[in-house]
Please model this.
Amino acid sequence: MANEKGGTGKSTTAVHVGVALALAGLRTALIDLDSRQRTSTRYLENRWLHAQRHGLTLPAPDVAVVEDGNNGEAELAQRLQQASTLDFIIIDSPGRDSALARAAMARADTLVTPINDSFVDFDLIGEVDGESFEVTKPSFYAELVWQARTRRAREQGRPMDWVVIRNRLSALDARNKQRMGAALDTLSKRVGFRVLPGLSERVIFREFFPRGLTLLDRAALSDFSLSHVAARSELRALLIGLNLPCGIELAA
Model:
C-alpha cells in the first residue's frame, strides 16, 4: 500500500485486507513503515485490546514497525526474510517519499495506490488540462512506480501488478466522478495500472479505529446497519478485484 499523499485511506485499506486474509485462515503479516504515525500498528493494537477487554476472538495479521533510517532497508529485508514462510505480507508505506518506501515498492507483487476521488490526488500520478480535463502527461509518482518496476524486474525478474483504487467516493458530484473516471482510464493505458473502486466516505471507518474493528467483524458489531452492508459490498468487490492468489473474496 503506497501513496506519497496522506489521508487517502491507505492504512484503513491495509488493515481491512490484512484482517480479511487472517479471517480466511492465511498466515499474514503487516509491516508498518510509518514509524512516526504508526496508524496501522495502532489500529491493530486497538483490535487486540478490544478483543481482550470483551473476550472476543478477532483474527488479525502479525504487525511490525520498521523505522526509516540508515538501517531501514536492511531491517526491511530482514523482516521480509523472516516472514517469507507466510502466505501474505502487507506493507503500509508512509505518506511521503523515502528510500525505504521505494525499496518496499520494488519488492511488491501487487502495488496498491489508494487515492481520493479528487483531481488534487490525481495530480500525484498525472496532470490534466484545466479546461478540457484531458490527461497531458504522467506525474512524478507514476515515474517513481516505473523506477520501482524496473528495479524489481532487474533484481527479481518478476512483473508488478499496479492497482489504483478510488477511495472516498461520494454519491454526489457526479460530474467530477465522471471526469476522474475518464482521466484514470486514459492514464491507466499510458502507464500501466488497473483501476478499482475502493471504499466510500463513511463515518463508520472513523468509529472502527478506537476499537480496532473492521467491516468483517459483524459478530462484534452491536450497531450493524445498512451502511455496514453497503460498505461490506464495496470491500468484497475490492478484495475480488485485487486478484490475490487465494479465495479471500469468500471472507468478505
Q: What stands out?
A: Residues 10-251 form a domain with the Rossmann fold fold (CATH 3.40.50.300). The mean pLDDT is 89. The CA atoms of residues 24 and 247 lie 8 Å apart.
